[in-house]
Design brief:
Blueprint: H1 2-24, E1 34-39, E2 44-49, E3 54-59, E4 69-72, E5 76-82, E6 86-95, E7 98-102, E8 113-114, H2 115-118, E9 130-132, H3 134-143, E10 149-153, E11 176-177, E12 197-200, E13 204-208, E14 218-221, E15 227-228, E16 234-236, E17 245-254, E18 260-270, E19 276-278, E20 283-287, E21 291-293, E22 299-301, E23 313-317, E24 325-327, E25 331-333, E26 338-347, E27 354-364, E28 370-373, E29 380-382, E30 388-390, H4 391-395, E31 398-401, E32 413-417, E33 423-426, E34 431-433, E35 438-451, E36 458-469, E37 536-544, E38 549-552, E39 556-557, E40 564-571, E41 576-581, E42 586-592, E43 600-601, E44 610-611, E45 616-625, E46 631-641
Parallel strand pairs: 1-10, 7-9, 13-18, 20-27, 29-36, 38-46
Antiparallel strand pairs: 1-2, 2-3, 4-10, 5-6, 6-7, 8-11, 12-14, 14-15, 16-17, 17-18, 19-22, 21-25, 23-24, 23-26, 26-27, 28-31, 30-34, 32-33, 32-35, 35-36, 37-40, 39-44, 40-41, 42-43, 42-45, 45-46
Domain L,D-TPase catalytic: 34-153
Region (Disordered): 470-531
Biased composition (Low complexity): 487-516
Length: 649
């Protein structure tokens, strides 16, 4: 009897040891198609293929007691009794008492899963096991045989190549129910049999020959409709773009429900791109009435190397027009100022794809203006005694225009040179004062507002004519009258013998006027005081104008704005009189690119604005000459700087 008891005790100890060894010993012989990594730091399980490529991932709940290390699965159970007691479905033993299992159930019944615990998936919540959804637990149970390697570690989101899958949240208005991922056909959740999917833009795609391969656009979704990154998608097949032909490629995925989706796309390698048109200049500037060769250096070919230059269609949109019109001629004469738009249109014959390139041609009239006169600039003759001649008379019959026909008459400036060589500009609505009889020279100037495309300078047209002021005729001398004939005296009568003369009365001396002046030429003073008006002793003129300044290219300057002549007149009584006026001020504008270059007279017509068109130094020399011939000047310097860039030009 004692021997039987001893044998039973030994057998019981042996069985206990075997159970202990069965729970704690890992067989280090890896099997299966996958290995598993459990990231306790993020509560994510990622399944890898043996070439270390991520295959699928599951959200989980590990626990503080979950061990760190590398293990090999040991046992599997459809149901297993857990602490509590509670129950896990689709259990796979990792090591000792540590299992992969579904969120626990109150009973060994699929309708009693704890909803509070289910909603904790994605955070630490277990007593050491690794909880997953029922669908994930079943995938591990079905696809990871015993001795599958499991690595448990503390990491971060960077260690999860597929990211952290989204999980379904269940209502906690009830304490238990179905796992929404359970594939059981009796599951009341619609997600029991929903499927993931891969949506592609097209299942038939053209791939460019001899170019880098680009996969079709696609988007993956899991069984709950959540978007997945393309890292979840696995590719089977390849495309050789150096060999024309058709290549089927299959894209597949396994989502966190353990369900799969796939789609096959056929790539056809050939000419899948537009033809290329080369040699088109984006913008050029040409002179009015010049010509341009529209096809010069323009070529085209497709990706197969086929030359398609002769297939290019040229279309033109002229200034002021809205529609493009096709042209056959290669040469275009530019009969309009403004912007032409040239379209080069080409359809690739291998795939019908259209290429369009555009060129802009800016046409400018930069030639010298033409000044004409109805009287061919005949001399202007003025009668003797004429003192002034106004601008209107000088400009009468004179016109100016550009080669394109644009009128420039309003931009004509006039300068008059008197017989002594003094030059004065005649402003509009003003008159020129004639100093003396003689021959004057009238010069007309007109500048093109655009710089010459050839010289880079403003071209000025100049015409001149004579102005003659006649001299006054001298007065005829007055002839003296004939002297009167002398009167012949008659014979004297006989003298009357006078009686004895009376004694003559001596006249009194006349009274001499009283004159206290020592100057015998000064007239005698009366009883009223003498009033003498003060006279001008000296006059000083000063031209007041804006100070020197700097401004960017594109600034517009009005030369006579805020410019006056101030005259200070010193009187004989010691007082001063100050006057200001704007009349009679002449000016000349010069331009100098830099200090080492000679100044250039811009010949700016009176009344025109000065447009600062280039960097450099501009000078406005103001001159005023009074009626006595005294002249004063003032030089105003404007330094032009480059215009600042826009905050996307």
């Amino acid at each position: 009897m004692k021997k039987k008891t001893l044998l039973r005790s030994i057998l019981f100890c042996f069985l206990c040891c075997m159970m202990i060894l069965g729970f704690q010993t890992n067989v280090k012989a890896e099997t299966g198609n996958y290995y598993l990594k459990v990231n306790k730091g993020t509560n994510v399980v990622t399944a890898y293929t043996h070439d270390d490529k991520p295959y699928t991932a599951f959200v989980c709940s590990a626990g503080y007691a979950t061990p760190i290390g590398t293990f090999y699965t040991m046992n599997k159970y459809t149901w297993w009794t857990l602490d509590g007691p509670s129950y896990g479905q689709y259990c796979t033993r990792i090591t000792g008492s540590i299992l992969f299992h579904s969120v626990w159930y109150y009973q060994q019944n699929k309708t009693t899963q704890s909803y509070v615990q289910y909603n904790k998936l994605g955070s630490l919540a277990s007593h050491g096991c690794v909880r997953v959804t029922t669908a994930a637990a079943k995938w591990i149970y079905d696809n990871c045989p015993l001795r599958t390697k499991v690595i448990i570690f503390n990491g971060n989101s960077g260690d999860d190549p597929l990211g952290k899958p989204a999980s379904i949240k269940v209502s906690t208005s009830v304490s238990m129910g179905w796992d929404p991922t359970d594939p059981d056909p009796n599951n009341t959740y619609a997600t029991k049999n929903t499927q993931p999917k891969i949506v592609v833009k097209s299942k038939s795609v053209k791939a460019q020959y001899n170019a880098k391969f680009t996969p079709v656009e696609m988007q993956a979704y899991d069984s709950a409709g959540n978007k997945l990154s393309n890292a979840w998608i696995h590719t089977s097949g390849s495309v050789n773009t150096k060999q024309m032909g058709s290549y089927p490629v299959t894209y597949s995925l396994t989502d966190s429900f353990g369900r799969t989706a796939s789609v096959t796309v056929t790539y056809t390698v050939g000419d899948a791109s537009k033809a290329v048109i080369s040699g088109v200049r984006k913008e050029i500037t040409k002179e009015y009435k010049s010509t341009v060769n529209l096809r010069s250096k323009i070529t085209a070919k497709n990706s197969m190397g086929t030359v398609l230059t002769d297939k290019i269609v040229t279309k033109i949109r002229k200034p002021g027009e809205k529609e493009y019109k096709g042209v056959r001629a290669e040469t275009l004469k530019l009969n309009h100022t403004g912007s032409y738009r040239i379209m080069y249109y080409l359809k690739n014959p291998t795939n019908k794809l259209v290429t369009q390139e555009y060129m802009k041609i800016i046409v400018k009239d930069t030639k010298k203006p033409v000044i004409k006169s109805t009287d061919n600039f005949a001399a202007i003759e003025l009668k003797a005694g004429t003192t002034t001649v106004n601008y209107k008379k000088l400009i009468s019959g004179v016109t100016a225009k550009l080669a394109s026909g644009k009128s420039m008459t309003s931009k004509i400036s006039i300068k008059v040179t008197d017989p002594d060589g003094n030059v004065k500009t005649v402003s509009k609505n003003a008159s020129y004062k004639l100093a003396e009889p003689g021959t004057y020279t009238v010069k007309y100037y007109c500048s093109n507002p655009e710089k010459s495309l050839k010289t880079g300078k403003y071209l000025v047209c100049e015409k001149k004519r004579k102005l003659v002021l006649a001299e006054e005729e001298p007065e005829e001398p007055v002839n003296p009258t004939e002297p009167e004939e002398p009167v012949i005296p008659t014979e004297p009568e006989q003298p009357v013998i006078p009686t004895e003369p009376e004694e003559p009365v001596n006249p009194t001396e006349p009274e001499q006027p009283v004159n206290n002046s020592t100057d015998p030429t000064e007239p005698p003073k009366t009883g009223l005081p003498s009033v003498t008006e003060p006279t001008a002793v000296s006059t000083m003129h000063t031209i007041l104008a804006p100070a020197d300044e700097s401004c960017p290219v594109g600034t517009i300057i009005k030369p006579l704005e805020n410019v006056v002549v101030q005259s200070i007149i010193s009187m004989s009584d010691g007082t001063q009189r100050v006057t200001k006026k704007t009349e009679g001020i002449r000016y000349q504008v010069t331009y100098q690119m830099n200090a080492g270059v000679k100044e250039l007279d811009l010949m700016l017509a009176a009344g025109l604005d000065l447009i600062i068109s280039d960097t450099g130094i501009y000078k406005i020399v103001y001159t005023y000459t009074d009626e006595f011939g005294y002249t004063t000047q003032y030089i105003r310097t404007i330094t032009a700087t480059a215009a600042s860039a826009a905050v996307g030009a």
